[in-house]
TrEMBL record:
It holds the Pfam family SBP_bac_8. Residues 1-21 form the signal peptide. Belongs to the bacterial solute-binding protein 1 family. It is found in: Periplasm. Its main location: periplasm. This is ABC transporter substrate-binding protein. Keywords: Signal. One of its GO terms (cellular component) is periplasmic space. InterPro entries: Bact_solute-bd_prot1 (IPR050490), SBP (IPR006059).
């Protein structure tokens, strides 16, 4: 533990009448109990406790991100919040509005503030508001294009050259789509999931088209902007051209369909990189999202947050744990193990990461895409605003509304929700 934190912990404990400088912190983490990620987190916690015998960390596995924010806010309102949690980066405004979290600026000594600027700026766009740092990036991602090189060869395409832009993506998808003698599709050329996180995948299209879904302060959306509508028309048009499944495409099954050879190209999170690499029986390509007006992807994933009602001693212990978890050598190993992006430039210079890149250069694609990345959709009342957009996307993809009407309706609903935040 850094000397200044140890001194602060000891001072606070003696002031409160404690006789030992031992403290326990509760840590909400958004996965179900068990599984490889839970085992990795448990190993990291055990390693931290060996190095910091005066701090005990109690992980509480809280299910999905949606489950986790609900549980965290319920615990906050009841007066028994976790000391620390990994929650969606886009939940920042929700947590601020609930007065649930404390800015890291209030915990980090002024002489040590450079640490707050050591992360990739693209990740900090969903971590800062009103001049304060509310979240520290941990398991962060972008959207990537994955392709089956064997399918490319079969279709007469260069297996080492992914589509550069929207037009080429349609052309490649047309050549990659396979049908049996009855006309039934046995392999789709392209699959962009539209359940789970449809707004996020859609934001990849919007960004490439030069559009933006919201303003930087989270008080206004732009769902009916012509650039946003045009992006939705393109997405809807993929299925009409017969190169993409019709209707809503499942988030969870898309990687499996790719591994099983039922989709030649997919969009999914860089957080799936390690799993797809392990599971695919074919050579897999990884690329930034195809361009249109420009390139770009929203960032995604989760931040560390420290809760306001946590006692001062626990807050300082939580900060110690956060700083240990995102230290360059550990975020590098976390990236290697999980596929999430190591969150600081220093992590990419570690020997472990340099060795990993030498054997698997595709791991750098998501990092390189950060140059053109934008903040993920995040507003006040974010869950309600996102739901309005997701409903509009589903209506357009299912054909029950035109893209124009779907986005007009979503915008009207979102701005009604955000009306109290207009200044």
């Amino acid at each position: 533990m850094p000397h200044f934190l140890r001194a602060a912990l000891v001072g606070l404990l003696f002031a409160s009448g404690a006789v030992r400088a031992d403290v326990e912190i509760s840590f909400y983490y958004p996965i179900a109990v068990g599984g490889p990620v839970a085992r990795t987190i448990s190993r990291m916690v055990e390693a931290f406790e060996r190095e910091h015998p005066d701090i005990k960390v109690r992980p509480i596995y809280t299910g999905t991100y949606k489950d986790s924010i609900a549980k965290a806010l319920t615990a906050h309102r009841s007066g028994t919040p976790p000391d620390l949690a990994v929650l969606f980066a886009v939940d920042m405004y929700t947590l601020i509005d609930a007065d649930a979290i404390v800015p890291f600026d209030d915990l980090v000594p002024r002489r040590d503030r450079a640490w707050l600027d050591s992360f990739y700026p693209a990740f900090m766009a969903n971590s800062r508001a009103a001049g304060k740092t509310w979240g520290i990036p941990f398991q962060r991602s972008t959207i990537l294009l994955y392709w089956n090189k064997a399918a490319f060869r079969e279709a007469g395409l260069d297996p080492d050259k992914p589509p550069r832009d929207w037009a080429q993506m349609v052309d490649f998808a047309r050549r990659l789509t396979k049908r049996d003698a009855s006309g039934k599709v046995t392999r789709w050329g392209l699959q962009i999931p539209s359940s789970g996180f449809p707004y996020w995948l859609f934001q990849g299209l919007v960004t490439a088209n030069g559009g933006s879904l919201m303003n930087a302060s989270g008080t206004r959306t732009n769902f009916d902007d012509p650039k946003v509508v045009e992006a939705l028309k393109y997405w809807v048009g993929l299925s009409r051209q017969g190169v993409h499944p019709p209707g809503v495409v499942e988030w969870g099954s898309t990687p499996t369909q790719f591994v099983d050879g039922k989709a030649a190209m997919i969009w999914t999170t860089s957080g799936n990189l390690s799993n797809l690499r392990r599971q695919a029986s074919f050579e897999m390509g990884v690329a930034m999202l195809p361009a249109h007006v420009g390139r770009g992807s929203p960032t995604g994933g989760g931040n560390f947050y420290i809760f306001r009602k946590s006692p001062p001693v626990q807050r300082l212990a939580a900060l110690t744990f956060v700083r240990w978890m995102v230290a360059p050598q550990r975020t590098a190993q976390w990236s290697i193990d999980s596929g999430y992006i190591a969150v600081s430039p220093q992590a990419w210079q570690t020997p472990a990461m340099q060795s990993h890149l030498a054997s698997f250069p595709q791991a750098a694609v998501a990092r390189d895409q950060l140059r053109d990345a934008v903040a993920e959709l995040s507003t006040h009342e974010n869950q309600r605003v996102t739901r309005a957009l997701n409903n509009g996307l589903a209506a357009a993809l299912n054909g029950t509304k035109t893209p124009e009407q779907a986005m007009r309706d979503a915008q009207a609903e979102a701005m009604l929700i955000l009306l109290p935040y207009q200044r």
